[in-house]
Write a structure and sequence with these properties.
The chain is mostly beta strands. The chain contains 3 helices and 28 strands. Strands 7-3-10-11-14-13 form a 6-stranded antiparallel beta sheet. The protein is elongated and about 80 Å long. Residues about 1-20 have low confidence and may be disordered.
């Protein structure tokens, strides 16, 4: 009797294990599409992404064009005449709501997508119609994982017609090399009213620019200006890495800076007198190289004033002056 009971327990355990094993490959694949416009920017949620999957291997299958990617078509790499036109599964809007311990939503899931995956390895394709980019990756089966969260980041700032980011391969057949414009800052110092304007030396000036609009962004303090930090006006969001940096051009009194995008939030810092200046420029990238003069006048008693479009701030002075 004991032998039969022992055998029954073992067989029951094996049967249960078999059932569990059979059900382990039912996974909901949850995709979080994002876009990064500049290399120094944080990735932001991206709406409108098209996502689908085929039960094929990316070693053998690829995508011939953006048009094919948008239409859900993949092509055999060693035989372009072999094409698959109906994905095994297409993504739909995510129907979950991740919550914190207090029941409140933790993130915005409005742009997320989901697909059911099983035992088969899949070629997952994501298409960004807004920027005409597409990418794909290989997703292996995930045993005993009810939900799999995956991020895909379209980096519109990337140069070239293809690039890799993590496990994803991305393609941009509409890529054109950026237009590069050489620009110049010409900062000078006037130590007394009516006095001569003197050129600075390399160690006295820091100059840079963000791709940003001064109607939305500001420099919060001299310490931030010297550190290269700007802050959004309507909240505390900060950016800490300028898009473009200017460099001293020998004894010319100029700081040269190559730019590829606009609008520019230009910042120049007088380290000697602890004064900073910033303004907005929208240069013609295909035009002639502009030179932007800015004069630092430590003799002025205002803490903040505007001159020739520049906002100049000297924190050593009082607002009451």
């Amino acid at each position: 009797m004991k032998y039969r009971l022992h055998t029954y327990i073992i067989l029951s355990a094996l049967a249960l294990a078999s059932c569990i094993k059979e059900g382990r490959y039912d996974t909901t694949y949850i995709l979080r599409p994002q876009v990064q416009s500049q290399s120094v920017d944080a990735a932001e949620p991206l709406a409108g992404v098209i996502t689908y999957a085929y039960n094929v291997d990316t070693l053998d299958w690829g995508i011939a064009s953006y048009a094919d990617a948008a239409a859900g078509i993949v092509t055999r790499k060693d035989d372009p005449t072999r094409r698959l036109t109906e994905p095994a599964v297409r993504a739909v809007p995510y129907n979950g709501t991740p919550e914190s311990s207090d029941g409140e939503p933790t993130v915005d899931v409005a742009t997320w997508l989901q697909m059911p995956f099983g035992r088969s390895a899949c070629m997952v394709v994501a298409v960004d119609p807004a920027n005409r980019l597409y990418g794909y990756t290989m997703q292996r089966p995930q045993p005993n994982l009810p939900r799999l969260y995956v991020s895909v980041v379209f980096q519109t700032w990337r140069e070239g017609t293809s690039y890799k980011n993590g496990a994803w391969s991305f393609y941009n057949e509409f890529y054109t090399p950026p237009t590069i414009l050489k620009t110049y800052y010409r900062p000078t110092l006037q130590t007394e009213e009516g006095g001569e304007e003197i050129a600075f030396t390399s160690q006295q000036i820091k100059a840079y620019a963000y791709v940003a609009d001064t109607t939305q962004w500001r420099v919060a303090s001299y310490a931030d200006a010297a550190a290269g930090v700007i802050t959004r006006k309507d909240d505390s969001e900060s950016r800490t890495t300028p898009n473009f940096t200017a460099y001293y051009e020998g004894g010319s009194g100029l700081w040269g800076m190559s730019v590829t995008d606009t609008p520019l939030m230009a910042v120049v810092v007088d380290r000697q007198n602890r004064i900073y200046a910033y303004t907005k420029f929208v240069p013609d990238l295909a035009g002639a190289s502009p030179t932007w003069p800015v004069v630092f006048r430590p003799w002025r008693t205002e803490q903040r004033y505007e001159e020739n479009g520049w906002q100049l701030v000297n924190e050593t002075e009082s607002d009451e002056n």
